[in-house]
């Protein structure tokens, strides 16, 4: 395979951002887009110079010219759509969270393994150059041993509406799956272990869906303080704090820079100066994997996705106490 032909499932906001960045991806081509409404699919195809538009996801999955699909539908539908794509033999890049439960995550991964088909959760943050630089600094020992991780991601939503996707309990609504997956994944990137204890202060919308969370992971020798909210704009920064220095990452979920400090002195700084939003990095990584005939990403592995799902389950367990 010299060029990977992609299909996009959904014409929503994040699918548009993915398509907009795709011109920066080498050895790849956007071949088709599918939506439940053909007019929307055609409009999306025209806007992003895509040749084919389909009125059903099944039509896209059955297109023999497509090698890989990007799934950008609501996360309550990820399992259904990823499973159908895998059954059709298509490599899958599926938006985060990959599924809404550990059982669904394990099922998709088993199907991918059994059928020899590529599957990756689209944790685009892991591929951003600034996050990779921060991880490099940590691996080089430049901040010593990690003692604290701080990360939050929150934006005020529109007025509460139980039928709005973000709040709809039947569509796996709530701030944890919608935005909390980012700080949970950030903590796992720098502290890849299961916490010994999880404490959560939770607030809920009128229909019982969580809309504000303050989360503490207690590890053997470190602590992660995480937050997510529909109620307010949080700082949305991350701090990786060691006993010899710390790293500050503004807007870590879409990071374009990071800084390294020793006490109060900034001793290093990285800025990526990219022109794109950043979705191109994950798309390029998957494209490269497929050309190399790899069946699993080494950056967002099956083990990583399972860890995200399990840690979010640990958080949700606190709601029942």
From TrEMBL:
<comment type="similarity">
    <text>Belongs to the Gfo/Idh/MocA family.</text>
</comment>
<dbReference type="InterPro" id="IPR036291">
    <property type="entry name" value="NAD(P)-bd_dom_sf"/>
</dbReference>
<dbReference type="InterPro" id="IPR050984">
    <property type="entry name" value="Gfo/Idh/MocA_domain"/>
</dbReference>
<dbReference type="Pfam" id="PF22725">
    <property type="entry name" value="GFO_IDH_MocA_C3"/>
</dbReference>
<feature type="domain" description="GFO/IDH/MocA-like oxidoreductase">
    <location>
        <begin position="132"/>
        <end position="247"/>
    </location>
</feature>
<dbReference type="InterPro" id="IPR055170">
    <property type="entry name" value="GFO_IDH_MocA-like_dom"/>
</dbReference>
<dbReference type="Pfam" id="PF01408">
    <property type="entry name" value="GFO_IDH_MocA"/>
</dbReference>
<protein>
    <submittedName>
        <fullName>Gfo/Idh/MocA family protein</fullName>
    </submittedName>
</protein>
<feature type="domain" description="Gfo/Idh/MocA-like oxidoreductase N-terminal">
    <location>
        <begin position="4"/>
        <end position="121"/>
    </location>
</feature>
<dbReference type="InterPro" id="IPR000683">
    <property type="entry name" value="Gfo/Idh/MocA-like_OxRdtase_N"/>
</dbReference>
<keyword id="KW-0560">Oxidoreductase</keyword>
């Amino acid at each position: 395979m010299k060029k990977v032909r992609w299909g996009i499932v959904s014409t929503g906001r994040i699918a548009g951002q993915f398509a907009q960045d795709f011109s920066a991806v080498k050895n790849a081509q956007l071949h088709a887009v599918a939506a439940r409404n053909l007019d929307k699919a055609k409009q999306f195809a025209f806007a992003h110079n895509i040749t084919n538009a389909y009125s059903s996801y099944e039509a896209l999955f059955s297109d023999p010219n497509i090698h890989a699909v990007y799934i950008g539908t609501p996360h309550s539908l990820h399992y259904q759509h990823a499973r159908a794509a895998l059954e059709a033999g298509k490599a899958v890049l599926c938006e985060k969270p990959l599924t809404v439960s550990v059982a669904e995550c394990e099922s998709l991964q088993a199907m991918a393994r059994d059928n020899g088909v590529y599957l990756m959760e689209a944790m685009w943050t892991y591929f951003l150059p600034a996050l990779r630089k921060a991880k490099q600094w940590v691996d080089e020992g430049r901040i010593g041993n990690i003692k604290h991780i701080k990360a939050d991601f929150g934006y005020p939503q529109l007025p509460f509406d139980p039928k709005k996707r973000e709040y709809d309990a039947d569509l796996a609504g709530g701030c944890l799956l919608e935005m909390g997956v980012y700080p949970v994944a950030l903590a796992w990137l720098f502290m890849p272990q299961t916490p010994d204890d999880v404490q959560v202060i939770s607030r809920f919308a009128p229909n019982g869906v969580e809309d504000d969370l303050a989360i503490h992971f207690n590890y053997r020798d470190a602590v992660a303080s995480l937050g997510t909210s529909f109620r307010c704009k949080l700082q949305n920064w991350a701090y990786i704090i060691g006993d010899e220095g710390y790293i500050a990452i503004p807007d870590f979920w879409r990071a374009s820079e990071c800084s390294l400090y020793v006490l109060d002195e900034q001793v290093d700084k990285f800025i990526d100066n990219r022109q794109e939003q950043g979705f191109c990095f994950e798309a390029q990584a998957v494209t490269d994997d497929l050309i190399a005939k790899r069946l699993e990403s080494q950056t967002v592995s099956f083990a990583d996705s399972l860890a995200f799902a399990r840690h979010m389950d640990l958080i949700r367990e606190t709601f029942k106490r």
